[in-house]
Amino acid sequence: MAYSLPEDVDQRPVTVAGAGTLGRLIATVFAAGGSDVRVFDTSAEQREAGRVHIEEHVAEVQEALDLRPERTGQVEVAGDLSGAVEGAWLVIESVPERVDVKVEVFGELDRVADPGAILATNSSSLPSRLVIEKVRRPERVLNMHYQQPPELNAVELMSCGKTDPEVIDALMDKLPDYGLAPFRVRRESDGFIFNRIWAAIKRECLMVVEEGVAGPEDIDEMWRIFTRPGIPPFRLMDRVGLDVVLAIEEHYAEVRTGIPEGPRTLLRRYVDEGRLGVKSGGGFYDDAS
Questions:
Q1: Is residue 202, in this structure, part of any structural domain at all?
Q2: What pLDDT, on the 0 to 100 scale, is given for residue 124?
């Protein structure tokens, strides 16, 4: 039977398991979008701090994400997991990055959550296939990785390997209601999409400083200037010319060890097809401009 969100999804709560820094941000976004939110944590101090954070920041999140729901979601905190997930259509785990802890949490969530509830891990590094050892219905489990909402409102959705594709389809359609920008991770990837890109940028920045090429202040200022126009990477490569980009990558591969072959293989394919970017009328984008 095909998966679809419950008809009363907007009347049902969202549960966040874990009231730490990111758990609070996630819960605030859903409350700002009009869903009642339940926040579970074993620590009474964390639960209360989470509640205070949500109530103090929900209005500014609505403004930042341009949300105008008929009502702001109510916030409840709970120290009992079964009570916290009752009736929830979506449960998001945001506990420490330890596989053993997450395996236990998801085993319990699978047992106590409603049968149709989506179970998501916010893990930034652990594929969800690692946490389903004790889950009987893995078709409803996936990675739902948030960045830092509301400023960074991207959400990456990645299958555990057994996730019903229609669960991800439903989330792709529903999450924009909360001002979130969902992205489908097409295959399992450590670091998902953006964290892999950021890892390379971060590593190279550190190398430039460690090698004495420049200081942190100069790098940050050049980054600010370079990103100010907002030209995204593949659009920029189309402007530069994919033959030029390939030549640069070939040079790096000659002078530095450890440069992977895959990116050059991809570029060669485009160049061999005559897809050079703006200069040929098409590159990564057909409307290269």
A1: no
A2: 84
